[in-house]
Amino acid sequence: MSCTSCSSPSPVSACQACPTTMGGKPVFEIDSKTVISFRSPFKHKKMCDGPTFTLGSICVYSCTFCYVISIILKQAAIQGIKRAAALLGKNLEEVVIRRRKALKTLVTQLTVEKPPDVILKRKMVIYTSPLVDAAANMVLVKETAEACKIIFELTNWDVRVLSKSNLLPKLAELIPEKHKHRMIYGVSTGTLDEDLCACIEQGTPKISKRLKSLYWLQDYGYRTFGMACPILPQEDYDSYARRMVETLRIDKCEHIWVEVINLRGDSFTATCEALNEGGFPAEAKRLSDVCGEGSKPAWEQYARDVFESFAQHIPPEKLRFLQYADPANAAWWVQREAKGAILLGEIFE
Fold first, then answer.
1. What is the Rg, in whole angstroms, of the alpha carbon atoms belonging to the chain?
2. Residue pair 97/107 in contact by the 8 Å Cβ criterion
3. Which neighbouring-strand residues pair with 97?
4. Three-state DSSP class for 162?
5. What is the mean pLDDT of the segment spanning 239-267?
6. Mean pLDDT of 317-324
7. What number is the average pLDDT over the span 163-184?
8. What is the mean pLDDT of the chain?
9. pTM assigned to the model
10. Where are the domains of the chain?
11. What is the pLDDT of residue 293?
12. SS in 3 state form for the chain?
């Protein structure tokens, strides 16, 4: 491995141009033949029209409910980083992984290695990022801005970017005015409680700062969308949904995506522990009641409660409720597709 800028051999970036840490995490780099997925499952979520791009593999932030590592863990390069991180006394959740020469790879994929059936001049939306936060700090904001400019020059695609950061206005300022209309910005806000957020989304900016950045984008005429995700089990779903919709300013959002918490791997245990340790035992118990062993019916009811509460406050043309429905419950959800339910999973894709 080597540093992107100076090519010095090292498993960890080790020069001023490439920070050795981000958010207190050691930064590793890997070689990757791709940064674009031309046929991503995010198309089924209506986040894009097929393509996504990601410039990294493990995020600066540390969310207890994140399941990215469980998806990428079997990759040989990730296993190599896991061993290197262990030498520093770190788990994979405690490091950042970037992709070496990601912008060059992006250009290659859109030119000499472009699949023949991919039409660059067709009007589409590409989404970033399925794996990492694209705007967690200014280094990543600048990298993302350069990637967007490449996409704008080589394609007719718009870019949808989702972030837990408050730096999206900085990203917007780096995009040429002529391409302003081709960016769609979204801020992830699963909870509006600052203290609860700090428990389960370590390293992220406060919700109030994220919302301030969203409002700036909306007030200056940028295209925006809402992302209320993940929604934890609530004591009063209707009042929660009403408050969330009002806070996101639905009239200024093109769409609002909503999703319940989908816990995989160790994320259930980590999230419950974080809630308990952070002083939210009631929230931890509600989560355990719907996600613990033998709680499948309770989880289904929780998902329905969240959907019905948000469907009361978001018009169906704007609501995009993501739901992994199993065959036993599919009929109930199919009947609600016209109200904004988007059904995910193998039987619907």
1. 20
2. no
3. 28, 58
4. strand
5. 93
6. 97
7. 98
8. 92
9. 0.93
10. 34-53+106-344
11. 72
12. CECCCCCCECCECCCCCCCCEECCEEEEEECCCCCEECCCHHHCCCCCCCCEECCEEECCCEECCCCHHHHHCCCHHHHHHHHHHHHCCCCHHHCEEEECCHHHHHHHHHCCCCCCCCCCCCCEEEEECCCCCCCCCHHHHHHHHHHHHHHHHHCCEEEEEEECCCCHHHHHHHCCHHHHHHEEEEEECCCCCHHHHHHHEECCCCHHHHHHHHHHHHHCCCEEEEEEEEECCCCCHHHHHHHHHHHHCHHHCCCEEEEECCCCCCHHHHHHHHHHHCCCHHHHHHHHHHHCCCCHHHHHHHHHHHHHHHHCCCCCCCEEEEEECCCCCHHHHHCCHHHCEEEECCCCC
Question: pLDDT at residue 89 above 80?
Answer: yes
pLDDT score at 347: 64
User: Is it the case that residue 291 has pLDDT exceeding 90?
Assistant: no
In whole angstroms, what is the distance from residue 220 CA to residue 214 CA?
A: 10
Neighbours of 68 (CB within 10 A): 18
The pLDDT of residue 9 is 39
Whole-number pLDDT of residue 325: 87
Chain-centroid distance, C-alpha 170: 18
Residue 43 near residue 49 (C-beta atoms within 8 A): yes
Q: Assign residue 19 a region (left: φ > 0; alpha: ψ between -120 and 50; beta: otherwise).
A: beta
- Region of 7 please: left (phi>0), alpha (psi -120 to 50) or beta: left
- Could you give phi then psi for residue 154, rounded to 5 degrees? -100, -15
What pLDDT digit, counting tens, does each position of 3-62 carry? Answer: 443 333 344 443 444 568 999 999 999 999 999 999 999 999 999 999 999 999 999 999
Judge: domain 34-53+106-344, CATH 3.80.30.30. yes
